[in-house]
Amino acid sequence: MANMKWKSFKGIPLLVTLLWIVAFAAALHFMEKSVIAFLGILSSIVLVYYTNTSKMIKMVVGAAVLLLIIPLVAGDNRYYMEVASQVGIYVAMALGLNIVVGFAGLLDLGYVAFFAAGAYAYAIFSTSQANEFIAGNLFPLSGGWFWPFLIVGLIVAAIFGILLGLPVLRVKGDYLAIVTLGFGEIIRIIFNNLDKPINITNGPQGITPIPSPELFGVKMGTPFYFYFIVLFVIAFIVLANIRFEHSRLGRAWIAVREDELAAQSMGISLLNAKLAAFATGASFAGVVGVIFAAKQTFIDPTSFTLMESIGILVMVILGGSGSIPGVVLGAAFVTILQVQLLKEFSNFLHSLQQSGIINLPNQLDPSKFQRLVFGIMLILVALYRPNGLIPAKRKKNDVEAIKASKFGQAKLGILSKISQASSGKQS
Amino acid sequence: MLLNILPQVLVDGLTLGFMYAVVALGYTMVYGILEFINFAHGEIFMVGAFVGTEVLLITDALGALEGMNPFVALFMTLIIAMVLTGALGVLIERVAYRPLRGAPRLVPLISAIGVSFLLQDVVRFTEALARNEFYLNTPTLFTSSISLGGIATIPAKGLIVIVLAIVMMLALTLFVNKTKWGIAMRAVAQDRSTASLMTINVDKVIMLTFLIGSSLGGATGVLFAQNYGTIDPYIGFILGLKAFTAAVLGGIGNLRGAMVGGVLLGLLESLSGAYMGPLTGGAFGAEYKDVFAFSILILVLLFKPEGLFGEAVKEKV
What we know:
Chain B: Belongs to the binding-protein-dependent transport system permease family. LivHM subfamily. The structure holds two protein chains of two kinds. Chain A is an all-alpha fold.
C-alpha cells in the first residue's frame, strides 16, 4: 500500500522549489545569519532532487544554489561556510565508503584509516616534520604543493587500501567488519606511537602548522575557499560513482554484493573486484584527508577514531547504501545533526540554565550525545528502513522493448530463448 | 632481570585471560546459535561492571558494607548484576535482533553496533545524573594477597577472578552437556528448523542463550571492577573486541575453544606488554600490546579461520 502511495507521488512542482530557494535565500540575506534559513537553503538541494522536471533543469538549479546562491548570501559568514565545507567533507567521504559498502557490500569499519593516511601524507611533508627522517632540510613545502598532494594522498590511500584488501579478502561478512575494525585501531595506535624510534607522525602531539592551499600566490585559508575545493572534489567523486555504477566493474561489484558464489561462477574475479572496491573507496578518502588536514591546519590521532568510521558508516546506511543521492542526504543530515543541531540544542539549554529555569549537570550537554544518537539511528534504520532513506534504484530492463528492437531477432543467446519459450507456450 | 618478573607477568596474564575467556563464552554461544556477532556483548559486560559497582557503593553508603563478610558482599553483587544483565541481554535480543532474524547478515550487525553505542551513552547519562561523573572507583572487597615464595604475589582478588571464572565455565559446560535445555541449545545450534520440528521452542532457546551469555558477561564485569578498581562506560568495547578475538582464536561456536583462546590471549597480551619494550630496545613498548592482540585476530582469521578447536565449515550453497 505504501508503495502504491509512493508511486502516485510525481514530484514537487518546479515553481514550489524555486519559491523555496528564493524565500530562504532572501531570509538568509535579510535576517542576518539565521541558522534556520541556512538549513533551508541547504535542504533545497533535496527539494531540487525531488522536483518534477527534467534532469537538465534540476542540475542547473542545483548548481546555481551551490555555486552562486550559497556563496553569495552566506559567503561572508565564516561559520556558515565552515559548516558547509564540513558537510562537504563528510559527503565526499561517505560517497567513497559507498563504493565499498554500498556497491561491493564489504562492511568496512576501519575506513577512517585511509582518511588518516591522506591527511598524514600532506601533513608530514608540508610541515618541517619530514626533516626528522629525511636529510637535507628540504621541508616544509609551500601551500602550492597542496594540489599535487591531492594526487599523492589518493595514491597513498589506494596503496593502503590494497595492502588491507589483500589479506582481508579471505574473510567475509561480519568477520570482514571485525578485521577492518581491528585494522583501523592498529593504524590509529601506530600513528599515535610513531614518534619513536624515528619521529614520523609526532605521536599524540600531532602535526601543526599545516599550510593552507595556494593558487597563483593567493592564499586560500578561509572556509570560503575550502567550500569550493570540497565542492569540486564532490563533483568528481559523484561523477566517478555514477560512472562506476554502470561500468563493467560496478556491475561486478553489485553481483559480488548480491551473491559471491554466483558472481564467481559467472566469471567475475572476486579478488580483482574486491581489491578494486577497497582501493577506489580508500583513494577518495585519501583525497578528502588531504583537504581535511589543510583545512584544520592541525591533525593528531584523535581525529581518526573508530567513532569517525562508525559515523561515516551511519551516513551511508541511513541515506541508503548504494544510492548516490541517498548517501549525500545521509551525510549532510548526520553532519548537520552533529555540528549544528545538537550544538544549537545545548546552547538553548544553556540559556535556559542561565536564566535559572532548569538545572543540568555539565555531563548532560546534548552536544555530547553523539553515540546515543548514532546508536538509536542505527537501530531504527536496521529495523524499519534497512535500505535507507532513499533506497538504491535497480535499473530494470524492459524485456518487451528489447524484443521489439532490432536485436530482438537474434537467433543466438538468452533473448532468442526467451522469445522462443514465450512463442512456444502460445502455440 | 627479565626473567625475574616472569612469574608475576604470568599471574597477571592468567587473571586477564580468564576474564577474556568468560566474556568470550558469551560471543561463542550467540554465534553458535544465531551465526551472528553480538557486538553489544562487550557493553553488557560494561553494564555488569557498573551495576556491581553501584550495588557496592549503595551498600557502602547505607553503612552495611563495613561489617559484611566480603564473600557475602561479592555473592550479593554478582547475583544482582547477573540478573540485571541477563534481563538486559534478553531485552536487547527481543527488541533489536529478533525482528531481524530473516534479514541479510549485515543488518543485525548494524543494529548490534547501534545497541552498543546506545548503551555506552545511556550508562554515561545515568551515571552523570546520579553521581555527576562517570569514572567510578569500585570499593575493594579483598585487599590481602598471597606470596608465592617471594617470586610473585597473587592478590586475593585475582585469585577470586580465576576461581569464579573456572566455576562459571564448568557450570556452563555441565549445563550445555547434561541438561534438557542444554541439549535443546545444541540442537538449535545444529539446525534451527529441524530443531523446531522436534518440538523445540527455538525462540525460547535463543532467549535462554542470551540470558546465560549476558549474565556471565555481567558477572565478569563485576569481577573486572573488583580487579582493576576503576571503570568507565567505554571499557566494554575494546575488552569485547579482545574477547571476540579469544573466541575466534579458539574456534568460534566452540565453548572449550573460547576458554582456551581467552587464557591464551590473556597470557600473550601480558607477555607482550612486559617484554616487547625490553626486547626491541624500547622502540616498541607496551602501548603496542593492543596492536599485538588485533594482529592475532587478523592472522587467525586469515590462516586458520576455524580456530584452534573448531571444525572447518564448508560453504553452504
